[in-house]
Specification:
- Two copies of one chain form a homodimer.
- With 409 residues, chain A is α/β, with parallel strands linked by helices.
- The first copy, chain A, has two domains: 244 residues, Alkaline Phosphatase, subunit A, CATH 3.40.720; 135 residues, Alpha-Beta Plaits.
- Chain A is built from 13 helices and 13 strands.
- Chain A is globular and about 65 Å long.
- Chains A and B meet through α4 and β13 of A and α1, β13 and α13 of B.
Chain lengths: 409, 409
């Protein structure tokens, strides 16, 4: 495994009309439920994916480092060729970008969770009973109206995301530092104050401002039945990543349903495509519409991961089959490279993300048809790509798409 | 292959009650003795190891770098997740730790070899005819009594190891530098003086002191029939490595017979377990006794390497079979992860350590049962772990043992 360094690709990248499709089934990798059993992907009836495996090259991707289970943000950064250990992105930044909030250089973003606390201020429910999204909209409007840091020269934007989740953005000069989260991650304890770990005057001031806002916000929420408190997590600024266009000369489009994934895609310069519907066929219809305008297409399928986290093996199998069914429509567009992978494994058996390498296939006219004949965790073990770091995916695709000039004479 | 960097693991490590066993057969990897032949491991009847391979994941470990044959010290450092190219440890330090000599920050340790020289001072036998250990004890006592650097403010400790091997430790402020060895590695030449390569005043003084002691020692030994001279090798201080407890939050125990391996284990903070006997079953009995008190267990089997170095293919096969026989007793303890590997290859055909990747298997409830069904050099080629750097072993085990928190949201 080699961690991708962008410098050499930036030097060699060239434009042409070859299209690259990166189809990501979130949490794709699985485990057998019992000894001698099959994984979700091995169980699914996937004649189209199997054809791609037969005609292309397979391997398995390590998202972060051996043994390390990634969150969705780092896992996607890695797919986009950014080593997540080197490029750490705050959750607040991802959520803000995900709802279409354009972050500027003076903006500090946090992911907010409405919570329920008891009369002593101890957390009873970290998700405020997963209040409906309409409720979230009303509460964020209430906070927007009745909280302010204007006296400190800081603008505040409070925006709903989904259910108990919202985003708060603080805009003003000199915000920064390395800020801790307020969520103690367990019930029975009060929320924590935000602290600054950077030791800079900037960080100390920012922590004080954020704590001041939280105090106001909790007063505003005090009379709410469920969402009578809140926590802030991943309080950070946009790290200003280089864009795929700048590194690879790729005009990139993201076809995703969930905010988080749109957020990471924007971070590396992708255009987020709006479309109707939330099923794989709707995503492929959107792909068809924008096919001529872009070079690189990131399609994100969320439900494979959700079903894995629910421990629902059968539903995950069906979702993989639903994705298999749209493969012919993608092939009809004549991509030069089609990659099918996941951002990490989410075995239904473990009901959570895991560190297991992710089965991955590359298909296209220049891809070596290796000895692998089906798409699956174990089938891909013997594949031409071996065990590789996920940051290698775009580099290989660039090669298969003839988008890299020769290195040296 | 990724070289393990401890920083990320230190951040993510968490405690639980899952146990990890690292079973190391020294010099495990082999070669066929003839075309179309089998290796030692492939020849051995190993129903238990084959079961582990069938139920777990296999791969092959590269100890140092492609093509590089390691000594035992570096090879074990690598198994313990320390890149031996980055962390160089003097042989003297390893030997001193191996005999239970506690090295302090003012201590400079050297491995000593008694040698036979002719009347012109040329080495006739670099091992003084492998004198018996009792003889070694007498000679080191003689040196302890009749040599001294007290006038220079330096204490000297001379301790026996085994046969012609001993340890000398120089204790005093300001010792250091980068010191060369005295052993010319061939007979027919006189021993070399110690030189300092660091160019520091400290190094120059230390080289002079060590040479002064060597001169005294050779005078004391002059009337001995066989051990009438000596050589010093690996003259160095304890590098102060981080401990497994600090990096991985693992309470680690070493169950080894030979001093060298106890020494490396101590260097990374393992507790060396005392026990009766020197066979695999005695080691597993010791494992059982200390099972509750530790999280990580390093079991070191020496004889696979010794037989390899002797060119004794059959004896190496039998030793592997003896290890296979104790596997059920290890499994009876319910480890969460069992790793079976070697520190390097020692093919009987080559009669020496070699650079060939080492067959390695991981077994445990969270380990993917890959397509490999027996334990062997060639069987493991198709395994889920691929060809990896040995420093990845503990990281993967940490994942399989649920001992790493999720990385990022």
């Amino acid at each position: 495994m080699i961690l991708t360094d962008h410098t050499i690709y930036q030097e060699l990248a060239q434009k042409n009309d070859h299209k690259i499709v990166l189809l990501v089934m979130d949490g794709l990798g699985g485990l057998p439920m019992r000894p001698n059993g099959l994984t979700e992907l091995e169980t699914a009836y996937t004649p189209n994916l199997d054809r791609l495996a037969r005609e292309g090259s397979s391997g398995r991707a390590v998202p972060v480092r051996p043994g390390i289970t990634p969150g969705s943000g780092p896992a996607h950064l890695s797919l986009f060729s950014f080593d997540p250990v080197r490029y750490e992105i705050g959750r607040g930044v991802l959520e803000a970008l995900g709802i279409g909030f354009e972050l500027g250089p003076d903006d500090l973003a946090a992911r907010g969770n409405f919570a329920t606390v008891d009369e002593d201020g101890r957390i009873v429910d970290r998700r405020a009973g997963r209040i409906p999204t309409e409720e979230c909209v009303r509460l964020t409007q209430k906070l927007q109206e009745h909280t302010s840091l204007a006296q400190e020269g800081v603008q505040v934007f409070v925006r709903p995301v989904k259910e108990h989740r919202f985003v708060v953005v603080f805009r003003g000069p000199g915000l920064g530092g390395e800020l801790t989260e307020t969520d103690p991650l367990v019930t029975g304890k009060p929320p924590l104050p935000v602290r600054d770990l950077s030791g800079t005057p900037e960080g100390a001031r920012t922590a004080a401002l954020v704590n001041q806002w939280i105090e106001q916000a909790r007063r505003v929420l005090a009379d709410e039945p469920r969402a009578n408190s809140l926590n802030l997590r991943g309080i950070a600024k946009d790290p200003g990543l280089p864009h795929l266009q700048d590194i690879y000369q790729l005009r990139a489009a993201a076809i995703a349903v969930y905010p988080m994934y749109k957020g990471v895609a924007k971070l590396v310069g992708m255009t987020v495509i709006d479309f109707e519907g939330d099923r794989p066929q709707h995503q492929v219809a959107a792909l068809k519409k924008v096919w001529d305008a872009y070079d690189f297409f990131f399609i994100h399928i969320k439900k494979t991961d959700s079903y894995g986290e629910d421990g629902n093996f059968e539903a995950k199998v069906h979702e993989i089959e639903a994705v298999d069914a749209v493969i012919p429509d993608i092939l009809a567009l004549n991509p030069s490279v089609l990659i099918v992978t996941g951002d990490h494994s989410t075995p239904a058996r473990l009901r959570s993300h895991s560190y297991h390498p992710v089965p991955t296939l590359f298909w296209g006219p220049q891809v070596m048809p290796d000895s692998v004949t089906t798409f699956g965790e174990r089938a891909s073990e013997g594949g031409a790509l071996g065990l590789f770091h996920a940051t290698e995916i775009i580099p290989w695709a660039m090669g298969y798409a003839d988008r890299l000039k020769r290195f040296g004479a």
